[in-house]
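TL;DR need structure tokens for one chain.
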Amino acid sequence: MRVLIFCVAVVAATCAPLADAPRELPPSSAAAAVATQAGAAAPIASVAPPALPSVSPSPAPLPFAVPTGLPLAALPPVRFARPDPVAGARRIGIQAGHWLTEQVPADLRGLESATGASWGALTERDVNVRVANAVAAALRARGHVVDVLATAVPPGYLADAFVAIHADGEPSGRTRGFKIAHSAYPRSPHDVALARALAHDYGAATGLPIDPALTGRMYRYYAFAWSRYSSAVSPHTPAAIIEMGFVTNAADREVLLERTDQVVAGIVAGISRFLEAVPRQEVYPDDLVLTPWPPFTGRTTVP
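>> reply
TL;DR here they are.
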């Protein structure tokens, strides 16, 4: 058996909440990378499942500079055994940013008041919830099993892909665009491919510009940090985070609220592209040997 050796280190960042709670997902051990059973999504806001273009597996390079070479923890590496193959429909986790932050475990208590960006009465959480449920509906229509996840991700969550959905905000209202990141330290060997596919199709579907200003709260996202938090996905699960646009910018807000079908189509097409390019038998190719992230001493925050 081949062994992929990755060094992982990161400083946490965080996401959070949705609307109606999904059926509770039984937790599993992150260290053992045990699969979590399916959950049900919250009700779907009025966004019709989009018609998707045909998928090709070769998008352009990721147009966002995720840093490399961050310092590693002085701790022994941890081996994550290759999960057993799973038969049946492919599983996707869609996390709605800033949903149910009041229900986070003790190690994520810094997120309890993290409600995300806002513009007047409009909250990022509401936008994230609407999009996450519509993405889930469209993916289910394509035959996939989809878990709509809140801030507290089931420990060791195992799936064919995990995407955290967020929106951005800033005081001036001038900044706009979308951005996508994967962990700054390799976990799954397919993280980059998932981020590339999302970037390719989301930009094409929405026409939104690229915002190149990635933040540490994205590439150090808490749900990627398997050694820091209980609410983190398995390192075997390909994972990415998207900031769909700025709720504080009028042009971006028009896309997010009035052309939500394009937003959904872009995310669904990117995930579909990734699943086509990485068949089920290749998602978990080997054991992973990972160096733990350095201990986190600050306050956990969310993008």
